[in-house]
Amino acid sequence: AQSVSQHNHHVILSEAASLELGCNYSYGGTVNLFWYVQYPGQHLQLLLKYFSGDPLVKGIKGFEAEFIKSKFSFNLRKPSVQWSDTAEYFCAVTKGGKLIFGQGTELSVKP
Amino acid sequence: NAGVTQTPKFQVLKTGQSMTLQCAQDMNHEYMSWYRQDPGMGLRLIHYSVGAGITDQGEVPNGYNVSRSTTEDFPLRLLSAAPSQTSVYFCASSPVRSDEQYFGPGTRLTVT
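^ inputs. structure came back:
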């Protein structure tokens, strides 16, 4: 079945560590790609999105993601995480007008 | 702008009861959708609408009905609640189908 896969379910890092969260999708053709974040007790917010153009996308709060078409991947990165980045992160793909989410990755940052 | 609003925030139902989760947006967005969030499963699309009078099924539509009589409102109906429908429900809206979606604060539903 076509899907969006996030490889890490729970990641624990210390402050200042670098972050990379994996996301792969299995849809062919043109897709729009998103990373959303859900802070504890809050609703989802957009971190960044990719529609076309430069495959390296910069988002809010120092996050960036790289679209690699040949690998069907859209990995999220941040050079140095902070305790306030503790949240759940969702990769999502729009295909055929429907937004399909990955399973989510819970990030815990230790102070 | 209030954005996307949802009511109620919390609800407990008994098996077999019916209820409607309310969703409204004041951004004049054409596209609206409902998701359920369950641990380890991300968000799954229940139903969506591309405009007033038009709705379609998502990944997990069984047990849920929707209607879209106005651009602003997109209620989700549970006709006969089941414990499997215990979840957190999010409504979202977007100016176009493929663009960023704006999410409401969610409704936490428990069915006993």
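Residues 5 and 86 of chain B are 20 Å apart (CA to CA). DSSP finds no helices and eleven strands in chain B.
thumbs up if we can close this ticket
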